[in-house]
Design brief:
Strand content: 15-25%
Number of strands: 14
Helix content: 25-40%
Distance between the termini: 36 Å
CATH topology: Glutaconate Coenzyme A-transferase
Structural class: alpha/beta
CATH architecture: 3-Layer(aba) Sandwich
Number of helices: 7
Length: 264
């Protein structure tokens, strides 16, 4: 089973417990996880956005790519409009550049905030979301840091305890302990190994469980929900490999719907 498949199913298992509302996902693994939870686990979250990733009858897509779907939207709702018109509460499954041991997340930039080495798109809806959960596909001390370079939002201030998903574990924020609590761990690593790859201290739940494998019922849905394999993009960091993956996806799109329907 691939890392992407396992991560997506892990998110699905936890998404089913989230209350009905509107979910915003920032990674293919998170989007697939919510879709699997909708299909198999009775999840009542509604996905919002442009493109088939948010179409209950559609597939995961790179962006707004209406030629992949049978239905054309009759109207579009802007992001601010979603907060005014869509269901409550709102939940974000964000993929920040950094998360630290105090549940702070950085989506703004790396380095000195006054002169960042790298600047990102910013906080977007993070400060306003009632529930924030983090999805960092590749577990690394480069992203799981002792202290973020810039605080875009703080999950510790939410009433709902935040979850942190990676390829290797699931952690939950503990308001009482003021720390992340390890609740699930992948079979191929032990707690000491996980600590070596994590830039902050965490506590271990007395009920620590192994991460579950994706069941056959979920695996059978993958060709319908993610036939282009977008979930694997979350684990590609090498730029040439990423460009090759995009080209493969573009070709697969054309084969799927017919090249005459794909804009040139």
């Amino acid at each position: 089973m691939s890392r992407a498949d396992r991560l997506s199913w892990t998110i699905a298992r936890h998404a089913r417990h989230l209350p009905a509302g509107t979910a915003f996902t920032a990674s293919s693994s998170a989007t697939l996880g919510v879709r699997l939870a909708q299909q198999l686990l009775g999840c009542r979250l509604s996905l919002w956005g442009h493109g088939g990733a948010y179409d209950p009858a559609g597939i995961l897509s790179l962006n707004a790519r209406p030629w992949l779907f049978n239905k054309r939207p009759h109207a579009r709702v802007t992001l601010p409009g979603v907060f005014d018109t869509q269901s409550e509460p709102h939940a974000l499954l964000a993929t920040p550049a950094q998360v630290d041991g105090r549940a702070n997340a950085n989506l703004s930039g790396l380095g000195d905030p006054s002169l960042p080495k790298v600047a990102f798109g910013g906080t977007r809806g993070l400060p306003d979301a009632r529930a924030v959960h983090f999805v960092l596909p590749v577990h690394s001390a480069r992203q799981l840091v002792e202290k973020v370079d810039f605080v875009s939002t703080c999950a510790a201030t939410r009433d709902t305890p935040s979850l942190l998903f990676t390829e290797l574990c699931v952690m939950r924020w503990s308001h009482e302990a003021g720390a992340w609590t390890l609740e699930e761990i992948a079979a191929e690593i032990d707690i000491d190994g996980l600590r070596e790859r994590t830039g902050f201290d965490f506590i271990v739940s007395d009920g620590l469980m192994p991460i579950e494998d994706m069941p056959d019922a979920a695996r059978a849905l993958l060709p319908d929900i993610d036939p282009l394999g977008l979930r694997d993009l979350d684990f590609i960091s090498d730029r040439p490999q990423l460009l090759d993956a995009f080209q493969r996806i573009y070709e697969a799109e054309a084969d799927l719907v017919g090249r005459d329907r794909v804009p040139r």
